[in-house]
Structure formats: C-alpha cells, structure tokens
Amino acid sequence: xxxxxxxxxxxxxxxxxxxxxxxxxxxxxxxxxxxxxxxxxxxxxxxxxxxxxxxxxxxxxxxxxxxxxxxxxxxxxxxxxxxxxxxxxxxxxxxxxxxxxxxxxxxxxxxxxxxxxxxxxxxx
Length: 124
Prior knowledge:
Radius of gyration: 19 Å
Number of strands: 0
Shape: elongated
Low-confidence stretches: none
Mean pLDDT: 91
Structural class: mainly alpha
Number of domains: 1
Strand content: under 5%
C-alpha cells in the first residue's frame, strides 16, 4: 500500500525547513522566510480547522437566515441583509453567529490570540 503525507503535513514540513534555514539568511531574506513560514502554518491550520469552521458558519448563517444554502450563498445573503439594514444587532441570533464565525477565523489566522468565550474549532 502506498502512503503519502497529508497536505497539512507537507505544509508543516516546509514551514519547519524554512525555520531551520532562516538563521543563516541575511536580515531581509530571514524576514521573508519568517513570512513564508507563517504562511505555511496558516495553510496547515486552514486545512485542518477550515472544514469545521465552514460547517459551523453554514449552520450559524442558516439559523439566522432561516434557510439552507452553500457557504457562499449564505454569506452573500447575510451580508446583503446586514448592508440593507434588514439585520441589526437586535436580530435574534445574529451576534452569536458572527461571534462563532469570527472566533473560528481567528483560530486559523491568529492562533496565539485567545478571545474569551467559545473555544476554536477542533479538527475532526
């Protein structure tokens, strides 16, 4: 049986390699290497946490909107209703849904930031 590394494992390996060679680089390239390593770490988190975060967002948006749809469809509809002033902070469930989605995205983009409340999504 042929096995291969998962995509998130590849991202992690590339990030680790960049971190390993970074000390030997000149200051500018060391900075760029740090940026690249951070990007690889974000890719890894997106691959592992992203599907759970998207599922939670779909559920939250569907609850607020009162209908099902894809992530893109629901996001477009929700943004449209907010922009039109149809949904406000008084809309039942809106703030809770937005908090879930924001916290999940922060867990992917900025894992060292720990907002109070709901824990980040866990990889399934």
